[in-house]
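User: Here's a chain of 233 residues. Predict its fold as tokens.
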Amino acid sequence: MANSNNIHDEVKEQRKKLKDLTFSGKIEYIWSYYKIPIIGILLAILFAGSLTYSIIRNNYDTVCFIAVLDGRITGYDDDTDALTTGLTDYLGIDGKKEQVDISYTFSLVEKEMDQEAAVTANRIYTYASTNTLDGYLSEKEYIDYFCTDRNIFFWDLRDLFSTEELNELSDYIIYYTNSSGESFPIAVDISEAPVIKGSDLNMKQPCYGIISTSKYSENAANFIRFVFNMEKP
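Assistant: Prediction complete.
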């Protein structure tokens, strides 16, 4: 009982001290006595807020992931570039729950004492083998970089586009020929596509193909239709 009274008296004494202090004095007094629990509460609030923000921010589906090799365009670093926003509108998605991801963080240009090309090759292989990568955009000299007789790496365009569409694209189609002499339409030179010409994409001869393991191959194919101002099927 004595202990209870002591605690009660102490609380009354604390309240009396606070009552007689100025506002700044009260803040200083509270901080000096309750600094540790206040910091703990603030950290808990920050952690909860950060976790909530992370969950909300990452609660979306990427419905078309395109790797751009050695290319840049205005807005590439914050997803406001003309290709990302344009394809989002073309696909008719909201850009929030469903998003287009066009990544400009890849390079296959080999430089002395630089492993970026090797790292990029491993990243591309990993994304492709896990059905994560949908489209591949590079200079023409690198378009068949990953193609082999055993694995052409790209979709055969005849399986994704109608005969009429292929005729429309015929002047721009790029073929891969294997050791047996068989040729496959694997990509499209998009350097003359209206959307590309109207942008500031800094690539000399950009070419684009759809990854054979793509989970969203139709969306990836629609990138070609989008840049050439073709209608969706």
